[in-house]
Amino acid sequence: MNSHILAAVFAAVFMGTIGAISVYAGVSAETVTFYRLFIGAALMAAFLLLTGQRAKVFTWPGFKVLVTGAFLACFMPCAPCSATPRLS
After folding, report:
1. pLDDT tens across 14-23, in order?
2. Residues ≥6 apart with Cβ < 8 Å to 31
């Protein structure tokens, strides 16, 4: 199996555990997602700095990356509101 496909499968499985971890820890899924992404970004920055790729850490992302990030940032708070049935 291609290593990229295997990495994508592992990423999907680990991202699927956000709900279970949030229930077990007693925090919201948004909190778990924030800390996962924050720790991942810190580890990626540390890796790039340690391997001498400092310029990549401070490179401004392209427009498409910013738009995708905005969609992802809006999805987490907005999706539960529209998917939760009203009981009143």
Report:
1. 877 777 777 8
2. 22
